[in-house]
Amino acid sequence: MDITFYGATESVTGSCHIVRCNGHTVLLDCGLIQGSRKADKLNREDFPFSAKDIDAVVLSHGHIDHSGRLPLLCKRGYRGEIHTQNASADLIDILLKDSARIQEYDSDWYNRKRRKDGEPLREPLYRSQDAERVLKQVRGHRYGESFNLLPGIDIRFLDAGHILGSAIVELQLQEGEHKRVVVFSGDIGQYDTPIINDPSSVAQADMIIMESTYGNRHHRDRQSTIDELGEIIEKAHSDGGNILIPAFAIGRSQELLYHMGMQYEAWQLDNWQVFLDSPMAIEASRVYWDYPQLYDNETTRLRKGILDMPRLSNLNFSRSVEDSKAIANYKHGAIVIAGSGMCTGGRIMHHLRNHIPNPRTHVIICGYQSPGTLGGRLVNGEEEVKIHGKWVENRAQTHTVGGLSAHGDQADLMRWLNGFNGKPPIYLVHGNTGAKTGLRDHLRHEHDWPASIAQDAQVVDLISGL
Ligand SMILES: [Zn+2]
Prior knowledge:
By secondary structure, the protein is α/β, with parallel strands linked by helices.
């Protein structure tokens, strides 16, 4: 009975771990590696295990850094089931098809150049049909219900409060007379996030695999975040500019619209046209609408009377490419929410290219940005950035609004950990080096909690090693 860490050990992406018990092999997450120049090369490498040896896959949530290599896994021969929460099952339908389209688009783009240079053409990492195949293997489950995955392995998904359907994965393992409970945090959300519930507490574990994205950080509280957004909108209005918000299609976009609905008058949004410029975010909003049973109390109360739901009369859904391009006609007064969240592609790219040379433009960064991505460069205030292969002068005013993160900060992570009985050993994954060492040191020195940083390919024996 053991666990091997294969991903998100060196960074925040590519979540992927193997649990072995009773002669069975379970893959926990199969995320895409993102945000560095080496990412594409790393994603193309063989898995450090054989896809055919996996007996079952368990997926914490839909985000691509947790699910994005599933099409590759199936393309390489995995035919078993993929278990996840019901809403996650619906969301990965949207996310994986989109990821496949991006892979196809990127390789077409590279191949055009390669064809010109007489170089060999490159296959996309995977295609739409590979994503379709994954969806046939997905099995959805409700929160809180334990199910038997394989002999000696029971699974329970608990709400992680990160995005709709996001789960903490509890694994009840039994091999001979040995019983162990392993809890994988998945991505833990902030407490008091709008729409969805707080992370569920878990009492019992023999070992915890813990994310640490913001393990060394403290977010601003929600009210000051709302005030901060209001101030940016007011400033942008007096500057006579546009506001660009690169946002993840799932979670962040819905949360932003919720705040805009609630603060419509306070933020004087009748001065603006709001564009949700992302077919994926529009589809994801529909999934959010379809799962009222997963809402927190406040959103449930609002939803009861449909007229009480936060409404934005000036919200425009930009589905087609023409709709998106037409936004360029707004020289001021447009708030554009578009993907991708880290500005690594998608429609936000052409809005940034058009508007960041203008000092009246305001860019609101409200999610994690990997260093090296365009989003990361904007946060650093770089005066010139490359967009679609061309240098663009950056004179926009960029604001980092940390309080909207879908990830809990150190206080949130500690609040969740304090729900456990005792101090089961913690292995930290899914954070950059500073975040992981920060959280590890905090746990060890302030709480006397045995915590270590998971190393790539490290095996932890769950019977003798704990
Ligand atoms: Zn996530």
